[in-house]
Amino acid sequence: MRASLIQIAVDPDESVNSRRKRAVSLVVAQRGADLVVLPELWPVGAFAYTDFAAEAEPLQGPTHEAMAAAAAEAGVWLHAGSFVERAADGTLYNTSLVFSPEGERRAVYRKIHRFGFDKGEAVMMGAGEELVTAALPQTTLGLTTCYDLRFPELYRGLVDAGAETLIVAAGWPERRRAHWTLLAQARAVENQSYVLAVGTAGTHGGVEQAGHSIAVDPWGEILAEAGGGEEVLSVEFDPAKVATTREQFPALKDRRLGLDTPQDVAPAR
After folding, report:
1. Domain span at residue 171?
2. pLDDT of residue 268
3. CATH number of the structural domain spanning residue 93
4. Catalytic residue numbers, as ranges
5. What's the number of domains the chain is made of?
6. 30: which DSSP letter?
7. Which of 153, 195, 231, 253 is the one with CA 20 to 30 A from 31?
8. What is the Cβ-side half-sphere exposure of residue 52, based on CA atoms within 13 angstroms?
9. For 90, which DSSP code?
């Protein structure tokens, strides 16, 4: 299976509409890949808090329309990163979408863990409440966004729901890049799953981005890693390795805690 991780640069001097068109071109250029993944809040910038309200869109707004068309033109499964969604009640969400190679929307994930503590995303956006998976022919994706990476219980819940490839769409800051790599490998090892973690390049909201998108296998081995600038990271991986790893080293079967905790899991839609 081949995945293309698009580490797009977010430049505050580039309009959202221009970057949206550029993202479409980058997706379409990945024709032949099985899966394409974009990062968190690439239309506006994950730290560009002052622009969130002005750039918010309805679920089926211009980003949804553009990404559906791009997936269909490229003939790929597309995790379209995330954008600022304005719900019908006015609440803002950090929302990710997954589209099929026919351009049909198959999953919606609203970020559960909002970053910022007492400012920014944490106070400006609503929190998602559902764990979300998306079943592809080759593997089942578990959808997560940026700050989610610090909360292992979310990933365990996704694995319990059948996830084999864990997606992390992020706008991760350069100053905490060491945590990015460490946590991506930890989530892969503890869940015996692939992790495809995609960040942005550039600087937005005055925060330099880490880049360094990364693909990690179920043993924690780094399969591919990007640099700090805009880049498309292409990686080949074998989804069957998840089952093999879990059979060879069946640590997940020895769990004693959390097995009876109910989880709300939303299927692909």
Report:
1. 2-266
2. 61
3. 3.60.110.10
4. 40, 111, 146
5. 1
6. T
7. 195
8. 26
9. S
